[in-house]
Amino acid sequence: MSDSIRIVLVGASGLVGGEVLAEAVGRANIRMLALGRREARLPTGATMEQVVADPAEWGKVMQQFRPDVLISALGTTIGKQGGDKDKFRAVDFNLVVDTARAAHEAGVERCVAVSSANADASSRFFYMQVKGEAEQALMKVGFKRLDILRPGLLRGKRVDDPRTLERLAMVASPFTDLLMQGKYRSGRSIPARTVAQAALALAQRKAAGKFRHEHDAIRRAAKELPQLAE
To answer: Which letter, b or e, does each residue of 177-210 get, where b requires 16 or more Cβ atoms within 10 Å of its Cβ?
Structure first.
């Protein structure tokens, strides 16, 4: 995975997106562009580019940058949107899918998208239903290669985004994870850093196809990313 690669990252201000930026630092083969609606906090030592623009302009930015891969770490919660399901859908479906289409129209052939464990368009749970619908739409965009990551509870420190129930779940995760066996294993918690490492590793795969990666597959992919010397 030594070939140079140009990556555009959307969702850089979120938990996984921030970890993607951090993991890209010091990797000479990666040229990263963080593209968002607001400025993201860049990690120490970062040399990547950042563009803040309205989503309607993201396609034009990508046409100028000419990335090889889109990493989409976009996402919010219903709670953060004040319980408004329409606002949640506007991000986790509309913005996710519209950005993917804009990337494809700009010539991007590969996409790595962060979804959720148990995403299912037919789910009776709204969150999982929207995630599943977004996955279905991404499958139809036309990317030469599409990797969908489906992590369970993300472990990591969020900045300016308090999620009380999530923090409590993280505290309990060492015990609850042990109970998740068999078909429930995919719902185990996972460090956001591991998901980011998997995203960067998968972004460098060129074989065509559409793939979904759950807990164990995400961990395996993360191990493919070369470790940098301290």
So the answer is: beebeeeeebbbbbbbbbbbbbbbbbbbbeeeee
Per-residue tens of pLDDT for the chain, all 230 residues: 457 899 999 999 999 999 999 999 999 999 999 999 999 989 888 889 999 999 999 999 999 999 999 999 999 988 888 889 999 999 999 999 999 999 999 999 999 999 999 999 999 999 999 999 999 999 999 999 999 999 998 987 755 555 555 554 544 555 455 555 666 667 688 999 999 999 999 999 999 999 999 999 999 999 999 988 66
Helices vs. strands in the chain: H and E counts, helices first: 8, 9
Domain membership of residue 228 (yes or no) is no
Q: Confirm if 218 and 198 have CB atoms less than 8 A apart.
A: yes
Residue 35's H or E segment, with its range, is strand 30-36
* Residue 229 in domain: no
pTM for the full predicted model:
0.89
Residue 12 lies in a domain: yes
CATH number at residue 124: 3.40.50.720
Overall residue count recorded for the chain in this entry: 230
> Is residue 86 situated within a structural domain?
yes
Q: Which of 220, 172, 169 is nearest to 198 (CA)?
A: 220
Q: What is the DSSP letter of 38?
A: S
